[in-house]
Amino acid sequence: MPTTKQPEPWGERIEELIKRFASGDFSAADRGDGSSDYHDSTLAMLHQLGEELRVHQEELENLVAQRTSELRVVQSALHLLVLTDELTGMANKPMLKKKLKEANDAAESTGLYPTVLSLDLDGFKLINDTMGHDAGDEVLRRVAKKLREVVTADCTVARLGGDEFAIVIPHATQTEALQLVQRVTRVMNEEIDLLGINIKVLGSLGVRFGEAGLSPEIQLRDADLAMYRSKHDGEGVARVFLPAMAEETRTKLALSSSLRRAVADGELELRYQPVINLSNGGIAAVEALVRWRHAEYGVVSADVFLPLARQNSLMPALGRWVLREALETVAKWRVEGLVSDTFHLSVNMSPMELAFRDLQPTIVALLNEFKIPPANFLVEITELQDV
Questions:
Q1: For 190, phi and psi rounded to 5 degrees?
Q2: Distance between CA atoms of 193 and 199, rounded to whole angstroms?
Q3: What is the pLDDT of residues 131-163, one digit of tens each?
Q4: Cβ 209 vs Cβ 111: under 8 Å
C-alpha cells in the first residue's frame, strides 16, 4: 500500500516562511494544504503579507534606482561646475591641467606634444579703476569670446583667474602653434565697444612648446615666465620660453632671499658720482648710488636689485641705510676739509618712498645728527617703474 508524504508540522512551515521574509524572499509563500482551515488561513495571510512586501520591495528598488540616476546627474553638473569658470563659461585651471595631462599622455604615441599659451591683459587694472568692475567683467567675457573664435575645436581655452588666460594646443607642430599665436595677437588688437567707448585691450603672450617629460605644472610655469618677459618688453608682445628665463628667475629668487641680509652682512656699498663745476674744475656735488657686492654673483647693479627690493617691501630699510651711509660719509669729508661748505649731496628716492610718513622726520634727524645744512642736501625722484 503506497505511503503518502506527511505534511511538515505547521509550526515549522510558519517558521520557514518568516525566515524567508526576513532574508528578503517574498516569493512563492506557502498557501496551506487543507489540513486545517485555521492553519490554511494563517498561511494565506502570510502569503498576502509576502506579496505586499514584494511589491514594496520593488517600489523601493525603483525609487533607489531613480534617486541614483538623479544623483549621477547632479554629480555630473557639480563636476562640470567645479571645472568651469563662472564668469566666462570656459574652462578653469583644474580643467586646463586635466586637458594638458591628457594631451601629454596622447603625445607619447604621436610625438606631438601640446603647446601652452599664457595670456595676461595689459592695462586691465586701469579699466577696473576707471570704468568699474562690471565693465571689467564684460571685457573678460569679450576676450574669452575672441579667444574661442580663433582657436581650433581641439584646443582648450581657460581663464586662470583675474585677467589671466591660457590655451592648450594639443598635437600641434611649432609652426602651427605660432600660427595660432599670430591669430590671437591679431584678434587682441581689435577694438572693443564698451559702453559706447572703443577701447583696445592688448595681451602679453608667453609660449611654451611641449616636449617629453614635462608636467602640466612645469609647462604652465614656463609659459608664465615667457609671458612676464613679453610684458616687460612691451604691450601686445609674444615671447617663446627659453631655458635662460628659468635660470634668471632662479637667480632673482636667490637674490631676493639674500637681499634681506645684505645690509647686516655689509654687502651694500655706495658709489659717488661727482658733479663738476666747469668754472673752476672742482667737485660741486656728488650723487650717491647704491651697489650690492654679492658673495656669489659679484657686483649687482641697482637696475637688478632695486625692483626686487620694491617687490619684497625692502625699500624702507634700504632707503634708510643709504641716507645714513651717505650723510655720514659727507660729514667726514666736511670735517677733513675735503669739500666746501657749499658742497651738495644728492640721494635718489622713488615715489614709493615719498609715501612713507616717517621720511621727513628721519631726514631731519639725520641732518641734525651729522650737522649737514638742509640746503646742502638734495633728493632726486626716480621714475616709477612697473615691476
A1: -75, 140
A2: 6
A3: 888 888 999 999 999 999 999 989 999 999 889
A4: no
